[in-house]
Design a protein that fits this description.
Order of helices and strands of chain B: HHHHHHHHHHHHEEEEHHHHHHHHHHHHH
Helix content of chain A: 25-40%
CATH topology of chain A: Alkaline Phosphatase, subunit A
Strand content of chain A: 5-15%
Distance between the termini of chain B: 16 Å
Oligomer: heterodimer
């Protein structure tokens, strides 16, 4: 928190008054009923864009076929043993203490229902919409929010500058990237509001931006009264951003993103999501995956540190669109595959285990002779977590959040 | 609904401004594309080939540094910084072309196709070189046959590197026997994104066979891209039910499959939809799409015919402006409305280009030449007008034009006049009221540029 104005309901209402405008006037805010907050449990979903190689992250060192499939990737720095079969990629060494504490776990050989075309974009669409095809255009976290009952704009929070399909949908959610400024003179603010009056998309976006900048600085928004103030705010944001719009694994922005997420989760947010790119390791995977994993590790460790005692009530799921080929390719990398790994962390999870049914890596056990065979639907794991964290029925999760997913047989990954 | 000169410049061109003379009719608007590419001459961008020496030097210094040459690393970093400065220079030149060109449609088509054939530089030196791809492969083929544009784009070294084609060897090639492998990335994206579309009639097996046919492109240090039959796959390969090639891999077979893909009916539909979505509406009129697709197909993929079809359809002139300008377009059309000359923009120092254009664009959600994937930038208005995206636009509109006018000693226009210059008959009452009510000139200019009317087209 570091002395920043923490967001709470009182602050929310007070600021609404200070702005001289009610957020209820915003089209984003109208569907929100001021009901009770949805409990203390928090869910963070990290979308790993580019297809993380699950077989390299949680290595099936006990499988007799593994070493031959991964002649160079299996070499080098020793992985960290998880049990007598699986070992953890050495770049995640910083998370190893969480494994011992039961705050880190995995589900192996999981996938969405997506098969065969192995396109990132389709794969991510299906991961985020939670559908079996591309018919759905809203995200499953958004549908979950609908059932849980979002009590404020911030109950669901997308962090970063990219649009996050997984949280898009009917239930209004917030989206913000740290360091976005909006300093205006009082008169400009008033005229902008008037001008945006008949343009709902613009109006809603501006209101939320004003509320969030106030949140970050802990003061009233638009404190600039001269053009010098406005220019200074602009240049400060330019310096702070230094050209980084995407959340790159390993980028310096990772810690800031996770800290901002924690700040929101300590406030009204219960479901937060952001994405990390950099997993598409067709070549030189040793370097590329190591870098991406260190970024993910920073995100998780920062969340743990910043959330403090709320970490106890938090589950983090890191999900990717599909796995990668079982065999290394000719350029020290792996190509688009099918089955992969789900990473889970947090005080709320039942960690210290690699869940799932191992299909084997033998020639006949691979999917189409090339990919790890999926033995479970990744949506069933996500559904189990939603159900346990937010007291949703298995039927609601299986039919309303997802369509036709049976979570009954899925291990209880929430402690 | 019919041709509207001002709307043509706003929707299909680079916007209105004090130096813009809108074309009188559709024929005149389209005829500009037939003229010489004056803007490219005035504000040049380097070719990929011209960077060969500095790339070679960069590699050599890397080797020297690994062998313990203490000075090599510093020299290597200097080359890298120089390359980043070139990237900013080329960004300014891309903007300068928009500011000065009388042929805005050409500039818009350049951005459309550069996005359709997205490349991202993945290596230290190529990171700054996406503009060379646009200059070499896109710009010269804007108005010709789609097949030629396709071939030029797919065989450019930036594309071959971005989609991992250099790493790929045919499954039956001699190199595969020595442990090298096939890489499907380029074949897949050509079918999914560049030609047939993701709903197109292809299977995983088509992807694999196509990847085998494509295997053979490699990058010679001197000659640029070459085709090496010994990396190719002994065919024939069957793609979409047709056989290509024989036992000996040949470049001609690759050409042939591009010809067929370029004129496939699914490609016509895919390209038509993308054109209508990019220029007219996120939710396109199906009759409009069908019209463009039909002309594309009838003409054998003649791009000029497709553009004429795009503009001649009544749905193209719907007065409601549904598209939101992407950040680059927003910034440059704003500068154009303010009357900035291309030479002024091109003369800015690289730090100024970074702070005034590149970083603000990133804050608006568009990190220049770094889209998230080969599917390029999103089209939907809601993907750009988010709280943080809009905040960055407003902040830019309020600060940068004023800073720029102070820097170059040119006064800001009267906001009320700017409404007329920037939006003409399409201004609307809201923005005119805001411009008239502003207490200062700099705020009024900021309000006009931040208005929904200016950000839409």
């Amino acid at each position: 928190m570091r002395g920043r104005g923490r967001f709470d309901r009182r602050g929310f209402l007070k600021r609404g008054a200070a702005l001289g405008c009610s957020l209820a006037a915003s089209p984003l805010a109208t569907p929100i009923a001021l009901a009770a907050a949805p409990g203390d449990k928090r869910l963070v979903v990290i979308v790993l864009r580019g297809a993380m190689d699950g077989l390299d992250v949680v290595r099936p060192v006990g499988d007799p076929a593994y070493a031959a499939l991964r002649p160079t990737l299996a070499q080098g720095e020793a992985p960290l043993p998880l049990d007598d079969f699986f070992a953890l990629h050495p770049a995640l060494g910083g998370l190893y203490p969480l494994w011992a504490a039961g705050e880190l776990g995995f589900a192996h050989a999981v996938s969405t229902p997506y098969r065969d075309k192995r396109s990132h974009f389709d794969g991510q669409d299906i991961l985020e919409t939670g559908g079996a095809g591309s018919a759905r255009r809203d995200g499953w976290l958004n549908r979950a929010l609908g059932l849980i009952g979002a009590t404020s704009l911030r109950t669901g929070f997308a962090i970063g500058r990219e649009s996050l399909l997984i949280l898009n949908g009917e239930v209004p959610v917030s989206q913000w990237a740290p360091d976005t400024p909006l300093t205006l003179t009082a008169q400009s603010r008033r005229l902008l509001r008037k001008m945006y009056g008949e343009a709902p998309l613009f109006r809603a976006s501006m209101e939320e931006a004003l509320a969030l900048t106030a949140d970050e600085t802990g003061s009233a928004p638009g404190s600039g009264e001269s053009r010098g103030d406005v220019q200074q705010a602009m240049m400060a944001s330019v310096r702070a951003a230094s050209g980084k719009a995407r959340i790159m694994a390993g980028g310096a922005g990772m810690e800031k993103i996770a800290r901002f997420a924690a700040e929101q989760l300590l406030g009204e947010t219960r479901i937060a999501s952001f994405s990390i790119t950099g997993w598409d390791t067709h070549a030189r995977q040793k370097q590329g995956l190591g870098r991406a994993l260190r970024g993910l590790q920073t995100a998780i460790l920062t969340l743990k540190r910043e959330l403090g005692s709320a970490w106890r009530d938090t589950a983090v799921l890191a999900m990717t669109e599909f796995g990668r080929t079982a065999r290394e390719n000719g350029s020290g990398g792996t190509d688009h595959g099918t089955g992969g790994v789900l990473l889970m962390a947090g005080g709320a999870i039942a960690g210290g285990q690699v869940y799932g049914q191992w299909p084997g890596l033998g020639e006949l056990e691979l999917y189409q002779g090339r990919d790890l065979m999926p033995t479970a639907d990744i949506r069933a794991y996500a559904g189990t977590a939603l159900s346990a964290l937010f007291a949703l029925s298995a039927g609601d999760v299986g039919q309303k959040v997802f369509s036709g997913v049976d979570i009954a047989g899925t291990p209880r990954i929430i402690a | 609904m019919r041709f509207d000169p001002e709307l043509a410049e706003i929707r299909f061109g680079t916007g209105l401004g004090p130096r813009v003379e809108p074309a009188a009719d559709l024929q005149a608007f389209l005829a500009r594309l037939d003229g010489p590419d004056l803007a490219a001459r005035a504000f040049p961008v380097a070719s990929f080939a011209s960077q060969a020496d500095s790339m070679a030097r960069f590699r050599a210094l890397g080797r020297a540094a690994r062998q313990g040459d203490g000075n090599a690393r510093g020299e290597r970093d200097r080359i890298l910084r120089e390359s980043r400065r070139s990237q900013l220079r080329w960004l300014a030149h891309a903007g300068a072309r928009w500011l000065d060109s009388a042929d805005g449609f050409r500039e818009r088509l350049t951005r459309f196709w550069a996005d359709h054939f997205t490349v991202v530089g993945k290596r230290p030196m190529t990171r700054a070189m996406a503009a060379t791809f646009v200059e070499d492969a896109i710009r010269p083929h804007l108005t010709g046959r789609f097949a030629d544009l396709l071939y030029a784009a797919e065989t450019h070294p930036m594309m071959l590197d971005y989609l991992d084609q250099f790493a790929s060897v045919g499954e039956g090639s001699p190199l595969a026997a020595r442990g090298r492998g096939l890489n499907e990335n380029l074949a897949r994206e050509i079918l999914e994104l560049h030609t047939l579309g993701v709903d197109g009639p292809y299977t995983q097996d088509d992807v694999r066979q196509f990847a085998n046919l494509l295997a053979g492109f490699t990058h010679g240090r001197r000659a640029g891209v070459t085709y090496q039959p010994r990396r190719g796959n002994p065919g024939p390969e069957v793609i979409l039910g047709r056989r290509y090639g024989g036992a000996r891999p040949r470049l001609e077979d690759v050409r042939e499959v591009f010809e067929d893909l370029a004129t496939h009916p699914a490609t016509a539909r895919h390209i038509a939809r993308k054109l209508v979505v990019h220029f007219v509406s996120d939710r396109p009129d199906e009759a409009h799409v069908a019209h463009v697709a039909a002309r594309f197909a009838e003409s054998g993929g003649a791009l000029g015919a497709a553009y004429a079809a795009l503009l001649e359809h009544p749905a193209a002139w719907e007065p409601a402006r549904r598209k939101v300008k992407q950040p680059f377009d927003f910034i440059v059309t704003a500068l154009k409305a303010l009357g900035l000359r291309g030479a002024r923009l091109a003369a800015l120092r690289s730090g100024e280009i970074r702070d005034g254009l590149a970083v603000p664009m990133a804050l608006m959600g568009q990190r220049w030449e770094r889209p998230d994937g080969p599917d390029g930038w999103p089209e939907a208005a809601a993907r750009w007008i988010t709280p943080q995206g809009l905040a960055a636009r407003i902040q830019w509109a309020m600060a940068v034009p004023t800073m720029l006018s102070e820097r170059i000693g040119a006064p800001l226009p009267d906001p009320r006049a700017l409404v007329e210059t920037a939006l003409g008959a399409h201004a609307g009452a809201q923005v005119a009221l805001a411009a008239a009510a502003a207490q200062t000139r700099w705020e009024g200019v900021g309000l006009v540029l931040a208005s929904p009317g200016f950000q839409r087209r």
